[in-house]
Amino acid sequence: MRSDIFIGFSNPRALFAYKYLNSLVSIRDLLSLVTIPSLTHSDVHLNNPTMGCSMYGLNSNFILDKSFPPFIPDPPIAPGTCQFDPAYSGDVCCNYNQSMVLFNNMEIASGMFGKCSSCMTNVWELWCASSCSPYQSTYMVPTNVNNNTNQIISINYNINPIFAEGLYNSCRDVQTSGGPPFAHFYPTYQEFFVGVFVIYNPAFKLTFVYDEVIGYNGSIIPCSELCSCEYCRDSCVVPTEGDGLSFNKTLGYTTFFDAQVPVLSIWMIYSYVGFILTTFTALSMWMLFNIFKRTQKMKWMILVYFLLIFYLSGIIVPFAVGVAPSHSASCTYQMPYNVEWDCSLALFVAIYPPLVALLIICFTLFLYFFKDRLSTMSTNFNNSNDSGYSNITSLYLNDNSPSSTPPSSPKFQGIGIKDPSLIQKMFFVYAKFIGRHPWWIILGTVVFTIAASIGIIKLQIELDPVKLWVSPSSRSAIEKAYFDEHFGPFYRTEQLIISNRSDPSSFIITYDNILTLMQLEIDLMAITVEFEGKTIEQADLCFQPTKRGCIVESVTGYWQRNITLLESIGPAGFNASLQYCQTSNLAPQCMDAIGVPVQNNVVLGNFTTDFMNSTAFVTTFLLNNQPANLTVNEAWEDVWLAKVAAYNKNESFPFHIAYSAERSVQDELAREGKADIPTILISYSVMFLYVSIALGRYYPFPSRISSIFVNSRFTLGLCGIIIVAFSISISVGICSIIGIKATLIISEVIPFLVLAIGVDNIFILVNTFESLHVSTYNASTRTTTRPLPEETLARALAKVGPSMALASLSESLAFLLGTLTKMPAVVAFSFYASVAIFFDFLIQISAFACLLVMDTRRTESRRIDCLPCVPLDGELSDDDEPEKQTLLDQSTNSTYDVTYKKKDGFLKLIFKKYYAPFLIHPITKVCVCVFFVGLLLTGITYSLQLELGLEQSVALPRDSYLQDYFAELALKLEVGPPFYIVIKGAYNYSSIQDQDEICTVPGCKMDSVANIFNNAPYVEPGISSWLDDYIQWTLNEACLSIYQSNGSTCVPPPVDPNDPVSDCGAISVPPTNRPSVQNFVKFIPNFLNYANTNSCQISGLGYSADVDIQDGVIVASKLDGYHTTLRYQQDFINSMKSVYWYADHFHGDFEIFPYSVFYVYFEQYLTIVNVAILDIGLALVGVLVVSLLILANPIVSLIVVLCVFLVAIDLLGVMALWSVNLNAVSLVNVVMAIGISIEFCVHIAHTFINAPKHYTNDEKAKHAVSEVGSSIVSGIFITKLLGVVVLGFSNFIFKIIWTLQIPTTTTTPIVIQTLKYHII
């Protein structure tokens, strides 16, 4: 009988039959670790009582069909073979020689199964039963025998399916020679037995028959008892998501009429319908109650009760009838929370609440329009407010009306405000002072600007993205610094994703394609570049982990990128060669030329389970990333990119290449920035031109055409733009002096922000000045006089200065509070914006105010704008006459003093005559409330669906070659980015107990570092551990043997039971099977410089970069792993969350942290939601504080804050709706939008508070909207609208600005909430 025949393999799926690998663990050592329950013949053969042998022979080509009784062999069967089982200590069907054949073949098989002791032992159990069991004739049944020679042609092996499945389960996760686990190729035990054990040649055909009655049913040792998590899923301590580990997920969904909708949307819709029901029911009940009070008829109160019941039915019905229908229902809908409703019931519940709301709205409108008929009272239902609107008749009259009586103090004579506040008095006095000394104020402003701008010479621009978005004190920055210090910077990556040009979805692995790929890679590796007089090759720059050459990760590494070798194999042997290497990538002949294994899931793309079905090659060049080599690396990459692009443009080249180099993103962003310059210039030019033109007076059209050149304020507008530039220059100078680095975002966004905010104040100041700088008729002297420009300036600043201060200081403080965040880009932006806005305000109320006085003097002397030295003929009164009108219909013979006013501009006329009256109407107020509550709920719904991240494709030019690369990357890569588990500090690696905290080999803790991370979410199983391989290396005497007596190296003798026992053997020996403390330290250098051989396929050379040894002490080490395929931004964020959480919750005697090159860029997303909330909250706090100080009205201050909050919420909702992710760039724009939204609110709020005291709330609201609404629209709204529309044609940064600022600039109606909440 032959025993070795059962270790042959024939299935081409796996080619495991040809893996003649040396044992990773010696068989005797392996079996010495195994403790097997005591077995008896009856135990082993419970269902098989018949004893007997069925075959005999040692020749692999000739096995006899021979029946004979079991016997006691002499000598006994070889120790360390089937003798580990007591069942084979007596009568057996094999002798010593046969047992040695079995031993030798099982030693070869240990290269496949030895990594899991349970698997190896169970395989021993299988073949010992077939070879030596005294019940062999029951299990091994010949089915075809040569009648002449009695040679067995085919045989059935009867095994119990329970035993077969148990053996498979113990071996399914074992990886062989660096390849995938068995389960990857054989999903079931039937496929496993056929693919691994079935004999095809040379002895006989073997067929496994799974029989529960007579099949062999030996004892199975579960892998969970003896194997580590890496090779046994049942041994894994599966991590559970604990407190703090919550992945970014979309909102929960539920069903609604068989459709999937967010749960929150259902509740928001219900809340909105409930709000409408409540609002209109309350209004109806209030009107009914008033009718009842006037008529004293109970029918109105009965109607109130009926209305209340009707209201409650609309609220309660969706909950009261939400029950499952009977089974007899022929039509059902899947409704929320997976409950099936009858169709008619579901439709009724969906329609009833909105129908109730509609009916109540109609009833409310009916009561409102017919209240006078319904009431028997003669008084108007709404008293005097029903008609709507009071005429502002006393605002500009110098009579004794409450709104125009000047203060009694001579110092404030002419301020034009009754009971002015302290801040108004301060602005009045200040304006009179600067109006008298305009040239000195302007000169002082210029001198201060120049002095502050000197600091620009210290300007530093931060270009490092790590320092831009990550705080130096952040976790990822600290860990990156530690990693770089001990292991060097993460390498630079140049990558190709290659597919067939003719059909990108077709299988790509062919002999010709591999040959073409080799030629391409060799050509790219031969690139040289002239740099500073030297010829630089790839070898001068590349990453060399084994010190034997450059690493290029590619499938061509299976043939060492050797064209001659591949051609010698030829097309006929290509598939067999590839399949062998794919399952034996640790075999020396399958490793890359530099001695590193080729990993299929790294070098091949877009396959399912069969690598041969790949549709993409993935080739990666790695360069060292030392800062000193940055310039030369980029020079070589530049040539590399040009070479690849030339290949890609060649239509005859069979491959389509998606490619990227380390410098690619930076290059493309720079190219994009240059391409945006014309668009940016056009945007600013449009805004500049509009501001300069819009400040002039062109309506009503003057009687003389020449007056247009006088009334124009183009020069003044241009000066306003220069003031914006001054404020930015001051900001940059001051911030540079105090050491705050600028960013490109600051240079692109701050001018836009300051211009938008500053222009609004300019328009308000100029328009207010124009409305006050009018002629006055003195009845006693019967003369008409015009005030001096400086006097008008004092009155104008007293009137609008506080609101300008409120807006500017609120914005400045809001941005200043934003510096409390830890994101450097946001901190820098907040500092620069705060300082720029503050000084823009100071220069506006000083230099610009003086320029306004001077420009007014030019106008009054009828000198041409832009050419002030050229006067025109005529008097100023000639231009004013067509515009002159009194506020009262009085003649110049009146006994009253009369103040004339200029005709309102077109936009102001629209606001005063149409928009303000419409807004004050009661129905409009209710509709506005309802609309904006709906907008708020919608904004909340969408903002909670806001995704994090910044898609690379969004940030890059649309025509960039990287667009194709990132698309292919997401589609075809089958493995995620590499990551490392770093073990900090001088840990005692030589201690077995301490090793058990890290390793995965037998004996290690099930919750060791590697085992925990092997089962963490978003981590690809198979953490590569230098410690595991070092322990395995010390166990294999073929790797290095020593005399146990003195520790010196030796050559082990051949295995022969007749030879005397020698102490020459593996470094590690039983019972610990670990190196001693001395040997652990002594032989680490040998391991880290060891290249694999046929007999020892463990290469320590590849781990040389994983261990940092200083003065003979390991001060840091790392384990290597890969994330699962990360295709979306959420995947990257969640993967980092996962490994961070498990590192933080690892309880060991040492400190660990995970590191990958992308963590430092994505860490912002772990806190960006909190940063956004903090920034928005701080901005609102700043607005509230300044509003309380200046407005001195808590209610209106809170309303201003509420309006700004609504803008922020709605803007976040629009971001989600328009697929703009939350990231550092969009967060900066959200903060900017908050600053701009303040402008929309505070001016109306301030004017509302300072309206004449005898006005009703409706009249105050109308007054506020009429006075400053047009200035806000013409100033900030139209200016920004023009700018952002142009920016819509740009890329990335300004596209984000366009996306976010369009909704901000179109939220003007939101500011009316400042009024509506107060009025209602």
UniProtKB/TrEMBL annotation:
Keywords: Cholesterol metabolism, Disulfide bond, Glycoprotein, Lipid metabolism, Lipid transport, Membrane, Signal, Steroid metabolism, Sterol metabolism, Transmembrane, Transmembrane helix, Transport. Residues 676-854 form the SSD domain. GO terms for cellular component: endomembrane system; membrane. This is SSD domain-containing protein. It holds the Pfam family NPC1_MLD. One of its GO terms (biological process) is cholesterol metabolic process. It is found in: Endomembrane system. The chain crosses the membrane at residues 267-289, 301-325, 345-370, 439-457, 677-695, 716-739, 745-766, 829-854, 918-944, 1165-1191, 1198-1218, 1230-1251, 1272-1294. InterPro entries: HMGCR/SNAP/NPC1-like_SSD, NPC1-like, NPC1_MLD, NPC1_N, SSD. Belongs to the patched family. It is a multi-pass membrane protein. Signal peptide: none annotated. PROSITE patterns: SSD. It comes from Heterostelium pallidum (strain ATCC 26659 / Pp 5 / PN500). GO terms for molecular function: lipid transporter activity; sterol binding.
